[in-house]
Write a structure and sequence with these properties.
Elements lengths: L2 H24 L2 H11 L22 H28 L6 H33 L5 H36 L6 H25 L9 H26 L5 H28 L4
Helix pairs in contact: 3-4, 3-5, 3-6, 4-5, 5-8, 6-7, 6-8, 7-8
Length: about 270
Amino acid sequence: LGKGENEIMLSSFHTSFNITNTLLLVWFVGFIAKTVERLVKSKGDDDELSLEYIGGGFMGTVELSLLEAYKEVAKFGAITAKMNGMVEKLLETTELKVRQPILDQVTKYEDMTDNFELEITKYLTDLSSEEMSGKTSQRVRNLLSITDDLEKVGDLFYQITKNLESKFQRKIYFVPKQRQNLQEMFGLVDEALVIMKKNLATRSEDLDMTDANDIELQINALRNKLRESHLKAVEKSTYSVESGMVYNDVFNALEKIGDHIFAVSQAIAGKV
């Protein structure tokens, strides 16, 4: 065979080989995809639960560094806000296989809120050693206050989770009215968290505190209403003492969460 014919045959062989492999592999695409998914696990919210903006140190100026800190605190607030829905789900299920993943998730988020507070506080404290104006220094203090309040929100959600799980383990039950009242309180707290997240993305000079004030008043009013009705229910033995103690602890903790959420908006507005 001539040189040209050899090249044609070699080329034909490679082409046929590649086509054959492709045709064979088509039938295994699903299997290969599932295998890769098992071997390379998705991080899920692991990326979400880590520092994103301040991990690389300070930016060129104090103002730019502070802007990155604001972004990190806004992300911190969004992560903390998700805990409300997680904890409320514990009111709705008695199945251990459903409860355990929620408990694990809340624990994970609470650990991360502790880490966020530690890292952001360190960043802001180090930034405070740089030369800055009085206005910038006040903004740093505001962010430190917000970070502290967000971490306390995480702690309180975690404590509610522990109380609800203890109730479950001890076979203590809420009557329908208790459950309904707590769901109403969770709903108001969720509204407050939505407002808080919006305010965290708003410049302090543009912040209108009307919505934050209104929802804080609603949460306080509901807490007062629940406290009064709870005391009457205890007198009438409407539910067990043990159930009443957990119930009282939960709605009071939710009201405290509302206080810290409101304090975040106050700090954004510079009212700390």
